[in-house]
Amino acid sequence: LTEHSPLGEQHGKVIGFVGGAQDKDGEKGKRTMVWAWGSTGEEKWTADIEIGMDWRSLIRSALLPITTDFFPDSNTLTREYNVQEHQLSGLESLNRELRTIVERERAAGGCEVTDKDCHRVLYDALICQRLQRGFQIVLLPKELILTSISASIKKAVSSKLLSTEIKAETTLSFSPHYHRVILTDTGIYVTLFVPKEVPHCSPIPEYPYYFQVPDSATYTASKTT
To answer: Among the entry's GO cellular component annotations, what is one (predicted)?
Structure first.
């Protein structure tokens, strides 16, 4: 398709130039633009280009929103989840490394870096790492989340949280897994809500289906679990 083609004007994409055909006197015609595109709209045109199905939509996972508004109630947490709580250890050695990084970033300002600054940087890093792995931030009032987990959390770590002020907290979810990260003046606390193991005797259903590959006139039977 040339630049004067109606189809080229509507659907094509300029990707380069090709030489025109030779006339009867052997002189080469004027170079003109070519409109062409690949099956996904991203490939450069070649003589061997093939038009077919874009399989990326079948093999790439969906991008979920960064937030969600669901959290299990107290009965579900008690019945179906194991709760693990711990305080982040090794902060002293981490603080030394973080202090160097933060001081380097604040070199122009000349502000003194405290342990609280290092804790905040580490707290933000824990949140970002989970978001990079596909976690979603639970956007629910903190009172509702605290009511749901009050009957499940252990007293050992929770009693420490009652005696100190919570500076920041974030609850995240990844499928049935939930993490609660809390920042205080004394450190960082993490609560993990892990689903209880399903008995191995539970049946695993199979789902049969038929699919048709490109350039095939028939369907192929397959199944998945």
So the answer is: lysosomal membrane
